[in-house]
Write a structure and sequence with these properties.
13 helices; single chain; D-Maltodextrin-Binding Protein, domain 2
Length: about 325
């Protein structure tokens, strides 16, 4: 999936005539900077589209979408959110349905990542991470992480409680629509002395100091940790990889839908893919973006792994997350 960076036309004629300003609600940091350097300046400015980034938290963007639902015009034209959040906003009927007629590059999105109200921009997948100097052979399945050799050697980020529970459920024969079998497996990890860290950064520090030698984490973060000198190797679990998708959507009452659709189309331009992959370790979501071979080997998926992606059931998560968090805090951590 690379930035082959063939040179497609900047936009279809309809998109090229889009009006001139778009307001994008987004994250700051590397993501916002890359939107500017890889998408806005090279791809949208030549179309005469000026971009105003409105930087804030996902929670603030969700709140504004809901608060502005009955307003004549929304304050944002494009809203960047995670996959679960955009699904929830779509269920509230706040978002414009996206089609290849509106956003032509949607036709090139990997089938498993297509969602009706969301543009899947970039993604990473859940992997098994180990310190290769401490853990051999490397585990290849979630079920392997319950072996005795992981006693006092495995740790998790508290922020990813849903994902740890889901991975445990898959190991026990459950799936994205049934996390219940994972509860007993979480208690197995507890008996093995699994550690829980308050943040991804705290977990990274524990891996670097070798306080723990195994975890479950996003491939993109593993790539960044490895670049920072943390001794980890990532394995795509044999049960199939679960993606996290960074998405963009358009409110139904967006002020400038034409410019919003042009922005979304540019987000899927293969020329924009390389920067996000190199800086953040996230993969492009389209079939026409090809990464350099060395980078593909670090963070890429095979065609078979793409076909076996296990997308979460966001409706199930909305119903079950409160009970999962309660079990995680009371029974697993307690």
């Amino acid at each position: 999936m690379a930035a082959t960076l063939a040179t497609p036309a900047l936009a279809t004629p309809a998109l090229a005539q889009a009006p001139s300003e778009v307001v994008v609600g987004t994250w700051g940091g590397d993501y916002g900077a890359l939107l500017g350097s890889e998408i806005e300046a090279p791809l949208l400015r030549p179309q005469g589209i000026a971009v105003q980034q409105d930087v804030g938290t996902p929670a603030a963007r969700r709140t504004r979408l809901i608060a502005e639902r009955s307003a004549r015009r929304a304050s944002m034209d494009v809203v960047c959110l995670g996959d679960a959040d955009t699904h929830a906003m779509g269920q509230l009927e706040l978002l414009e349905e996206l089609t290849p007629e509106k956003v032509p590059n949607l036709a090139k999105v990997i089938p498993a990542l297509r969602l009706p109200f969301t543009l899947p921009h970039i993604y990473s997948v859940r992997t098994i991470l180990t310190n290769p100097a401490r853990i051999q052979p490397a585990p290849v399945r979630y079920a392997d992480l319950f072996e005795e050799r992981f006693r006092s050697r495995i740790g998790f980020s508290d922020l990813l409680f849903t994902h740890m529970t889901e991975a445990a459920a898959i190991a026990a024969g459950g799936d994205e629509r049934n996390h219940q079998p994972g509860y007993a497996k979480l208690l197995e990890w507890k008996r093995l002395g699994a550690r829980v860290y308050p943040s991804n950064e705290a977990l990274a520090a524990a891996l670097k100091s070798e306080e723990v030698s195994a975890t479950i984490m996003w491939l993109g973060r593993a790539y960044m940790w490895k670049k920072a000198g943390i001794p980890v190797q990532a394995v795509i679990p044999a049960e199939g990889a679960t993606p996290y998708i960074s998405c963009a959507c358009v409110p139904k009452n967006a002020r400038n839908k034409a410019a919003a659709f042009a922005y979304l189309n540019a987000m899927l331009d293969p020329r924009a893919a390389l920067g996000f992959a190199e800086r953040m370790g996230f993969l492009p979501t389209t079939t026409d973006a090809v990464l350099p071979a060395a980078l593909q080997a670090e963070i890429g998926l095979t065609t078979a792994q793409q076909a076996a992606l296990r997308v979460q059931d966001f409706d199930y998560l909305a119903r079950s997350n409160a009970a999962t968090l309660d079990f995680w805090n009371r029974e697993f951590k307690g």
